[in-house]
User: Fold Helix-turn-helix domain-containing protein from Paenibacillus mendelii.
Amino acid sequence: MFTEGFARLSHHVYWHRKTQFALDRDSSALWTLFAVVEGRFAYGIDRFEGDAGFGDLVLCPPGTWFYRKVLEPLTFHFFQFRWDSNSPALEGEAPLWIGKRQLADTKRLSSDFAYLQRLPASGRNEESIRAYKQHLLNDLWRMAGIEKEEIRPEIAVHHSTDPRIQQAREFLLVNAYTRVNMSGLAATIGLSPVQLTRGFRSAYSMTPSEFLTARRLERAERLLVETSFSIDRIAQLCGYENGFYLSRLFSRIRGVSPSAYRRFHRI
Assistant:
């Protein structure tokens, strides 16, 4: 269940096309959140590591080392905040996740980013500015919570699902838009590639590769309609190396080219 609570903003900075971090690691007494607008960076937080780009929120809890390295010139919103839970027993605990969370609603995300960029860093109405920023921070938080609780019929879990298969599904959800080695995933959860494929198909009526492709094409559809990004850029944001491969795959599975899909859905 999503934990009810409220993020109380302490600090916000908007960084534009940052090429490197002053420190390759840092820790804070506050919660730290990176919301990526453009570019990519590698991160390591406790046992969680990977890379993040547009649509990703990366969260580090208080008192934890946050390792980071810019991979592509990085534009992002940096937040530090305290967490107030409605439940005294949960106060100060991680209410949702540690590491990366990918947001599907890129249209609303882009809207929040646009409002944040319009607000000045400071001014005579500093308390009002902070209140607006705090509202937008909590909107990002709520989006992540709502999407985490969403149940999609095509990926409904069977009661008899092997916990290792559920672990594989969670991994694919978190890492859907990065390079995924299915053999490596199978080995990590203690299964052979054949066992992983059979178990996944039994639980979710599709193979792990089909599940991954479905997630990626869903994101590609949203980006085609909600942004003006090139096909190559959308391919990168969906976990593919180039737009040529994405175009072939999209056309084969959706029955229409990405450019035609964009044109039809923008009328």
User: Anything to note?
Assistant: The beta strands are 5-18, 25-26, 31-45, 48-52, 56-60, 66-85, 99-102. The chain has nine helices and seven strands. The chain has two domains: 5-149, 154-265. The two ends are 39 Å apart (CA to CA).
